[in-house]
Amino acid sequence: MPSARSVACCLTLLALAACRPSEPPPVATVEEPEDLLTMVHVADPKAAQQLIKGFHELEQNAWRWAMKEFSVSLKPPPGALERGAVVRLNFTLPGAIAQKLGPMTLIARIGDESFAPETYSKEGDYVYAREVPAGKIGGDAVVIDFQFDKALPPGELDQRELSVIVTSAGFEAR
Q1: Which superfamily does 29-173 belong to?
Q2: pTM for the complete prediction?
């Protein structure tokens, strides 16, 4: 049976522990506007948190496969609300995908604003670029949704859904 003194010591320690301030919860830095990038290079570790959905793991420290639908969160460039901006996606359409699927059409959206689609028929490096009118992007962060009309389903060449290889996505100031 514990002594009265040891019980008193335990009660004192419990009381002291209860009086200590608790640690604040960690803050997610991706939500801090000053941490967001305007152009994300998918190999940049700082940019990984801005790749919202539809991206596979980094490969060869340079690029990522994307699924049929993928999204990035970006900081608008300075003056974009007044002057607009250009949305830009740099990617590669690999020969195996082009041969298997044929022409692939890409479209981008910001909210309910869709941009003109573009179709890619041959393997190669491409840039999808579309002007965003003034007044369409404001605030601290903007999500751009990209969508191809088709992708290679899991199991044919890989266990992942594959569309193109993305190297960067973002805004350019106008």
Answers
A1: Galactose-binding domain-like (2.60.120.260)
A2: 0.79
